[in-house]
Each structure stands twice: as C-alpha cells, then as structure tokens.
C-alpha cells in the first residue's frame, strides 16, 4: 500500500510537470510561434491572440482530456472491461448522429443549439444501450456488447447520411473528427461545470467502483444496490463525455487508452486511477492538439485524428494481449 501510494504521487508529479510543459508549448506554438515575453504580456493584459484564442483552446483541451479519461475509467469499472470507453459505448456516436442530422438534413439549423442537440443524442444513445442491456438487472458483459452493437449501428447511419449529402458534408466531417478550431471562452463555460461536477461525483464514487470489481454475489452481500449504482455511474460517465461531444465533436480513444495506462502505472484502486487518468488525459489532448497545429502549418490536423493515431494501435495491442492472455 505504501509503495502504491508513493508510485501514485510520483506519477501525479511527473504528469503535472508534463502538463505544465505542454501547456506552455500549446500557448507558444501554432501557425506563428509567439515569443515567451510576448506570451506573458498578452496573458497579463488579457488581450491579443494568446489570451483570446490559444488560452481558451488550451483550457478546452485540458477539460476534454479530464472528462473523457474519467468517463472511460468509470465505464471500465462499471463493465469490468478494460476495452470499454465512451466512443465504444455509443455516447460519442449518439451525439455525432444528431449533429450530422442537424447539419445536413435540417435547413437553417441553429448553430447555437448544436451542442444541446449533440448532448441530447449522447444521452439518448446511452439510455437505449442501458434499456437493451437490462434483463432483470444489467450484466457488465451484456452492457458492453450492447454498447458495441449500438455504436456500430449509429456509425452506419452516420455514414449513410454523409454519403447521401456528400457535396455538403464537409462541416459534419470536421465535427465527427473532433476539432478544437475556433473554440472560445464561451465553449469553456459550457464544459467546465460538467467537469467539476462529474469529477467530484466520480471521486466520491471510488469506493463503489472498487466494490463493483468484485463478483456480483460478493457485491450484493455487502448490501450494495448494484443496478442503481451502475445507472448512477453510467449517468456520470455520460455527462462527462456528452459535454465533450457537445463542444468538440467525436474525439476518440482517450477514454480507452488513458484509464488503462493509469491502471498500469498506479494499480487497480480507483482512488488512484481517477486522478491519474485526469492528469494524463489532459496531457494527451493538449499534446495532440499542439502537434496537430504544428505538423503541417497552416493546415490543422483535428485533435480527434491525432488521438486516434495514438489510440488505434494501442487498442489493437489490448485486443491481442487479451487474446493471448
């Protein structure tokens, strides 16, 4: 226990250092590199490109990393499956489907209401998965399989709609790839309440998440109402991930890669997994967004593509490891 706590503290310190380093790089680098003294001046005066454009983008990237990694950690705990993640459990696909429909099929849609529609789609998809998985209770395996099945179906519908409206599908495609382009302080205000509330609820639920790792007979013997607890935790995960889909589109693999990496670094105790996931998730998204801006300037690679380039090989590694194990 002492070694695990020490390892946790070391990981948090190292992650915080990386977070600070990549945050500075994110503010300085872009299509045009900003000198350090000019960056400090603009931040102090609250004016200029750094404060108006790059700082809110940095904050959004940080909040996205926290939300998606915590959501993935919760879903992996509820399903007892390290391959569970918001983008594999229908949350991002549900929001993406509603967004694509609004952009392509609804004339004169309200851009201001787009995040609301995306969040509603994420919630509806999650409710559908839970309803399909419920048979005298919810088994983790059935929940995971229903999530994968619904996600596949929603992606198929999204593809069909994009093919039908191909000439005018550019905006929808950008949304589906997940982008932080032109994000402002208004978007920060939309996400941070969900981050604060979701993170607090998740941290307060560490004991329940640890208990759910036991077999169901043991959990019931401890007096826990399993289905109610799972539903509550899924709702927290949906709130965290749905808020991300609402402002940044479908950003994948964070909720899969980061919780698993945190588990490898600090063990299986959710008291340590959740804070570690939050820090590492923020580092990953900030680093991916910064890299996407500087690899091919002035062309910007969406952050969702960058995280997929990292997450897809890792996902295959997990699959192979489970198969070989």
UniProtKB/TrEMBL annotation:
Its main location: membrane. One of its GO terms (cellular component) is plasma membrane. It is a multi-pass membrane protein. The keyword Transmembrane helix applies. Gene3D superfamilies: ABC transporter involved in vitamin B12 uptake, BtuC. GO terms for molecular function: transmembrane transporter activity. Pfam families: FecCD. The keyword Transport applies. One of its GO terms (biological process) is siderophore-iron import into cell. InterPro entries: ABC_BtuC-like, ABC_transptr_permease_BtuC. Keywords: Cell membrane, Membrane, Transmembrane, Transmembrane helix, Transport. Signal peptide: none annotated. Belongs to the binding-protein-dependent transport system permease family. FecCD subfamily. This is Iron chelate uptake ABC transporter family permease subunit. It comes from Paenibacillus foliorum.
